[in-house]
## 1
Amino acid sequence: MSVGVWVLGDQLWTGQAALQACDRHTPVLMIESIAHAQERPFHLQKIVLVWSAMRHFAEELRSQGWQVDYAIEESFEAPLIQWIRARQITELRIMQPVDRPFQQMLQAWELPCKVSIVPSNRYIWQDDEFVNWAKSRKRLIMEDFYREGRRRFNILMVGDQPKGGKWNFDRDNRKPPKGKLTLPEALWFEPDKITQEVIDWIKNDDRFAKSQEYWSIEPFRWGVTRKQALQVLEFFIETRLSDFGPYQDAMVTGEQTMWHAMLSPYLNIGLLHPLEVVEAAATAYETNSHWDLSSVEGFVRQVMGWREYMHGVYVYADDDYRDRNWFGHDRPLPGFFWTGETEMNCLHQIISQVRETGYAHHIQRLMVLNNFALISGISPQEIESWFHAAFVDAYDWVMQTNVIGMGQYADGGLLASKPYAASANYINNMSNYCRNCTYSPKVRTGDRACPFNFFYWNFLDRHRVRLKDQGRISLILRSLERFSDEELAAVRQEAIDWQE
Ligand SMILES: Cc1cc2nc3c(=O)[nH]c(=O)nc-3n(C[C@H](O)[C@H](O)[C@H](O)COP(=O)(O)OP(=O)(O)OC[C@H]3O[C@@H](n4cnc5c(N)ncnc54)[C@H](O)[C@@H]3O)c2cc1C
Ligand code: SF4
């Protein structure tokens, strides 16, 4: 029996289950598929990040004595079959791919050897552990899952009680960006020779023409090795974690990262493991007990709560989850999502930042980009497709749950407790974007009316029946009752007439 391992581009960690199941004499294959990178107009920096990280990981494995073969080909299937034959592999081991479309593609191939899928160890919770937890509940609630995780993995606990006597400090973490804030620097890297080779190739290859039209490839400043990812983690803990909480939801013009961790690109390709990230944060708190617990707890909740929950729901949900459209929204995606050319300053600022970096923080994604799509009635599948192309950390598992589920509420509330819909009031309070905008956040209809206002009220009006049982949002519906007939008619008309 001759075993071989295929390491996928989001499994770049020597502790990953398929490598752990073999010794260092086992041949390893890695493949860059050009067709896979062209499936949608991916951000150029995402392609560079993944391919450069793969090439660095191949070097790391070789330096540890593994025999690594590296293919740059059109597809995955042909070089894989060729390698199996050339290396006379009789059993191919692959760590369970996380994304469903990839799993389905793999199942459809007829490979000339036995294929063993090794259960994944890249999340804190194993797939079957989450499914068992979910089946034991009447309703999926992230907070219950998060508390169970804190207990099970003993993070920020004193015996069986949460540190500080409370599980959740979310209410302390919603400060608007008022006054003069001193924001921390982010840790970025210069491209090395390997990264520069990938950049030079992709920016000059016509096969990536669509991506070249939309996204900047340089300056490319992401880390591409585990060593760099660990530096980002350490830097975050030393310079940002203690203040992560209070301004978690704030947005400031020209400030791309605020106090956010910038860890998702590395977590999502396996350069970091989520458990080591939360353990590092909890350990730092032990030695710095003067730090604000709400900041540390807020961060742990993101990784051990939200991230694990999103992955678990993706595993648990039915195959048709991606097609859900509870509100029946069908407006096409406006062209400015690709160019950033819009008079709406909040969208202009954030989309321009995404074009430059492939990154935006959570509230920019949820309460501006996604909120606009939700209230204006854009098709959930169109906005999901845009997010998937635009972000350096986008993968199918994190897209379906965050965009179809949390963002668009297209699953009718399987995942989130309410639709994340808001008017300009929220954006005006949590950012300084409105100060330099053509529109006024205070105006609902007429020339200077902010589109977030008429779309918001129109959204509530259109979906009154569906929303009346949706918890907190049902209370806001009562405000609609106070609209005069003329005002409601004007809101409806603005929403119909709007175009950019
Ligand atoms: C509409 C929408 C689209 C999103 N698209 C992506 C995406 O493509 N890829 C992605 O990894 N995350 C996505 N998220 C989740 C979250 O916004 C990003 O993980 C986060 O902004 C990454 O930046 P950061 O590392 O600085 O995060 P921080 O704000 O510092 O948070 C720390 C970590 O928590 C994790 N996390 C927090 N919330 C989530 C969540 N809801 N889902 C998954 N992980 C979470 C991330 O790993 C993140 O690195 C999306 C959220 C929304 C609402
Ligand atoms: S006024 Fe409206 S469009 Fe302009 S920045 Fe504020 S929320 Fe965005």
## 2
Amino acid sequence: MHITHIVAAAENGAIGKDNRLLWRLPDDMKFFKEKTTGHCVVTGRRNYESIPLNFRPLPGRTNIVVTRQPGYDAPGAHVVQSIEAAVELARTLNETELFIIGGGEIYAQTRHFATRIWLTRVHTELEADTFYPAPDPTLWKKVSEEFHPADEKHAFAFTFICYEKN
Ligand SMILES: NC(=O)c1ccc[n+]([C@@H]2O[C@H](COP(=O)([O-])OP(=O)(O)OC[C@H]3O[C@@H](n4cnc5c(N)ncnc54)[C@H](OP(=O)(O)O)[C@@H]3O)[C@@H](O)[C@H]2O)c1
């Protein structure tokens, strides 16, 4: 089973502030939907709560919310109390590619065993309180990249980059 991070980060690693995203990039949202549909997605409780109520659980995906709160209720989603339990649940569902969708705490705790990263590098620097560090080139090999220019619907240019573990 691949364990894949999917994340959008500015040049300075910024991914979020005040439990919100920093941009609205419709083609990146579309990319996220295409990649993750049909798969299990693992989210931290804070990231899950940042998704508007009418968009969660993310449709067409098995949503797994990680929290330490006993009895936490997320209708339509699986709730687990550890990252290990989230990975185990995906394995029991015969998942082939498990997507870690953030936020910062969950990325940080799963990076060492992730096998693939889909990074949307957003070509700007923004103030933030949550960051995603650049993949270490001694550990991660860039296997593809595709540039998307800024336009009337996208305030910033960005590049879809895929990394795989060396
Ligand atoms: N740009 C992007 O691609 C992207 C993607 C996702 C998120 N984000 C941004 O990231 C920010 C949220 O990230 P965050 O770091 O604040 O929070 P987070 O990682 O989404 O969630 C943190 C919460 O997850 C639970 N948790 C963490 N580690 C755990 C463990 N080992 N076992 C059990 N539960 C655990 C805890 O929930 P409890 O407190 O309930 O115990 C913790 O408070 C937001 O600004 C969001 O917009 C950006």
## 3
Amino acid sequence: MSIDGRDLKFPKYVWEAPVRIWHWVMALAMVVLCVTGYFIGSPLPSVPGEASDSYLMGYMRFAHFAAAYVFTVMLLMRAYWAIVGNKFSREMFLVPLYVFQPSWWRSFFRVLGHYLFIRRENDWHYGHNQLAMAAMFGMYLLGSVFMIVTGFALYGEGTGMGSWQHSLFSSWVIPLFGQSQDVHTYHHLGMWYLVWFTIVHLYFVIREDITSGLTVVSSMIGGWRDIKN
Ligand code: HEM
Ligand code: HEM
């Protein structure tokens, strides 16, 4: 294969249906988690009317926890798919041992150069480019696992000692961070880490869709990567 990938054969089926469905369900769950999580951290100063008629924060927390279960179960199912799915479904889960290969860094800096407007053309890939793959692992995957671990540690405080959430998470995560408020703070900061990933992700998928000459956004809808006419 040439270094710029111009000799790759297209169209190529890249994102299988479970990966595509997973992607959009997770994106939706994350929006619900960010909006409700934001209000859990910064509740509205007042809600009009009789206090016992209102359950606003209760519904917010319910939506947060329901989306949290969807988020967690879907990530576990996605990990299973990385084992049985095609090789592109594994890219996000690859522990970045590739950083020990000099050729990986050469490709990485070529992509970075394109992202920084130093190189006009980007290299072609079937799946993720080097920078995307590292971000998917380091930002999205590790960030999501962090949110699940800290989230269930906070949840276990409500379900109480003896519950699986408390035994599996709260019992060690809360002492590790210090106390409950510290876990709240790091869980909150984790949200901004994932929001940052998402903004950069949206910028690049749309930018690459316009400039790379390959299908990008539509590849996460139909599954195929192709050369644009
Ligand atoms: C993308 C994933 C998630 C995001 C962006 C997110 C965001 C947030 C934010 C911003 C808060 C407020 C923290 C504070 O300032 O006190 C919060 C609270 C909380 N989150 Fe999450 N969260 C996520 C995943 C989860 C998961 C997987 C669980 C597991 C059940 C969870 C459970 C909780 C709990 C129990 C609280 C505290 C609720 C309360 O004190 O009333 N979160 N979340
Ligand atoms: C909360 C919002 C979002 C999150 C957290 C997110 C996360 C991700 C993740 C983790 C992947 C890697 C999938 C894998 O390797 O299995 C991915 C790929 C992708 N996402 Fe998103 N996504 C979000 C929203 C969107 C939106 C709104 C679009 C479309 C405009 C989009 C378009 C894509 C595309 C096209 C890919 C494949 C990229 C490639 O070809 O290299 N995403 N996204």
## 4
Amino acid sequence: MSSNVKPVAIIGGGITGLTVAFYLQQRGVPVVLYEATDRVGGAIQSLARDGYLAEFGPNTILETSPKITTLVKDAGLAERRRDPDAKAGARYVVRYQRPIEMPGSPLGFFTTKLFTLAAKWAVLREPFRPARRDGVEESIADFVRRRLGREFLDHAIDALVAGIYAGDPEKLSVQQAFPKLAALEANYGSMIKGQILGGRERKRRGEIAKDRAPKFSFDDGLQVLPDTLRARLGGAVRLNTTVTKLTQTVKGWLVDSYANGQERRVEHSAVLYAGTAFKLAELGLASLQPLSLKPFGDIRYPPVASVVLGFRRKDVAHSCNGFGMLIPRVEGFKILGTIFSSSLFPNRAPAGHLTLTNYVGGERYPELAAKPVEELVEITCADLRVLLGVKGKPTFQHSVYWPKAIPQYNLGYGRFRALMTEIEGKAAGLFFAGHYRDGISVGDSIVSGVNGVERMEKYLAAVGGRAR
Ligand SMILES: Cc1cc2nc3c(=O)[nH]c(=O)nc-3n(C[C@H](O)[C@H](O)[C@H](O)COP(=O)(O)OP(=O)(O)OC[C@H]3O[C@@H](n4cnc5c(N)ncnc54)[C@H](O)[C@@H]3O)c2cc1C
């Protein structure tokens, strides 16, 4: 591509924007990445202090697509990738006020104390329940009640939904938030049958089911990935720079931004927005056809506090061997769940200590997330005393408050996705990618970014000389 081509603007320095900028730059497309804060990574945030390595956003990346593996390699990070300890595979769900290991096999399912005989029987009957194929959108709660029964919803799915979305199962749309689950019923008439028969199809697409996908991090935590991509991007990254307005011209886009008290307007060939939905709604848009970004302000992001605590190993009765524990609402605890971070990776706590990453708030208790740190630590310790037999005071504590943590793919979310597609169709050269569009996980965001690069490249090739 010739050097007088105007650069592409990428808005947002989270993992999506960094992935897009990195690959476009690698393919010879000039880019400028605008990031409002003084750091890259967005929701990815690692802290090394006092011998602890804490994660306040995601703890691991789920490797559900080869595109994720390729990004790690292309960023030169294959050597720094760390897989969790093989012994840390166990996942716990709280029932009867204590963590019970989730069954890992069909035999384990029959013998587990996690579910009553009635719930197990309801699950066994799932393949024989009539499939609903009327296309009507349904909450994950209604879907699970209908196919697996009430107990499975209250004691398993509710906890899972809190662990993934910090969300409310009565509001989350199964079609939007768990599309693969909805597709199993639509395509195979049953989740269980689909899980078995759909394996071959997934393999053909190069996909790995979320429950089987490997998880990984890096030697110095997840922040290594955004930091490395930023270093590779060099001078293309503008930190502390908030994009305020996009203006479409016949040749491309004018991007207004604000940095150090100064406003700037820069010409770009195209724009990819990789920020958050609530910030997208604040962005001015002057497109050739009248379009508005305001509706994206209706996307709900509940607040979450990440409370990372260190303890002496001898002060915790539970082995904490495993990934962590999920807590259903019916159990009456205030924390949503806990990741056994130092069981996953060896350098998360000093010798003789362990690190527990806890989440407070979400749709379940939004008012708790904004409590002062000391109160959050108290709330968390009170639950951990009962659940894990924790004694004494934490040897490490640090909390991060996310006032708007994770977008809820609630009933009706499809209208936001349809609007993004409509705007992309009408405002040529403006693209959307990231956690608010293609799935909320880090892996989903990377794949969304890679797919965004493909769409952008097609557009640039089509407009050719015009985008100058
Ligand atoms: C507490 C928590 C725990 C999580 N746990 C997991 C987990 O265990 N596993 C998992 O896979 N995922 C997890 N996630 C989700 C995952 O981390 C995110 O969905 C993913 O990192 C989103 O990446 P992104 O680049 O799309 O957006 P973000 O990381 O939100 O980045 C968007 C960036 O855009 C910038 N921006 C926005 N507007 C503008 C503007 N106008 N101008 C300039 N910059 C702008 C923002 O400052 C931000 O840096 C978690 C998230 C949170 C909050």
